[in-house]
Amino acid sequence: MTSHQNFIAGRFVAPATDAAIEVRNPATGRVFTAVPAATEAEAVAAVEAAAAAQKAWGKLPSIQRGDALRRLATAILRSIESVRFLLQSPLRNRSAMIRT
């Protein structure tokens, strides 16, 4: 199983403990990965960073926010096979629903 880190304030951070939470595919019940069981301090840091990022995001002109969202959609489409594998369900014609 892959080891993961927390993503806080725009960077990956090693978890404070080795505790992990198993992530299961809801369709099969099989464990497909594990994520760090964040401590309270890590959770607070993540929430504070997200709140600060939201304020900065809100100050951007709408055209810049739109461009960023289009780049995100393009990156998701490039990774659609990985998404399909993780979900283990058909995603027929879903990529056509996202306009870039």
Task: Give the secondary structure arrangement, pairings included.
Elements (H helix, E strand, L loop, with lengths): L5 E3 L2 E3 L6 E5 L6 E6 L3 H20 L2 H17 L1 H8 L13
Antiparallel strand pairs: 1-2, 3-4
What report would you give on this structure?
The chain is α+β, with helices and mostly antiparallel strands and 100 residues long. The protein has helices spanning 40-59, 62-78, 80-87, and strands at residues 6-8, 11-13, 20-24, 31-36. Strand 3 (20-24) and strand 4 form a beta hairpin. The radius of gyration is 17 Å and the shape is flat.
Q: Would you kindly provide a brief summary of this structure?
A:
The chain has 100 residues and is an alpha+beta fold. It contains three helices and four strands.
Run of helices and strands: EEEEHHH
Main sheet, how many strands, which sense, barrel?
Answer: 2 strands, antiparallel
Percent helix, as a range, is 40-55%
Mean pLDDT: 84
The helix-and-strand class reads alpha+beta
Unreliable stretches covering 5 or more consecutive residues: none
**What is the count of β-strands?**
4
Oligomeric category:
single chain
Overall geometry comes to flat
| Beta-strand residue fraction | 15-25%
Number of helices: 3
| Radius of gyration of CA atoms, rounded to a whole number | 17 Å
Report the span from N to C terminus.
33 Å
| Strand line-up in the sheet with most strands | 1-2
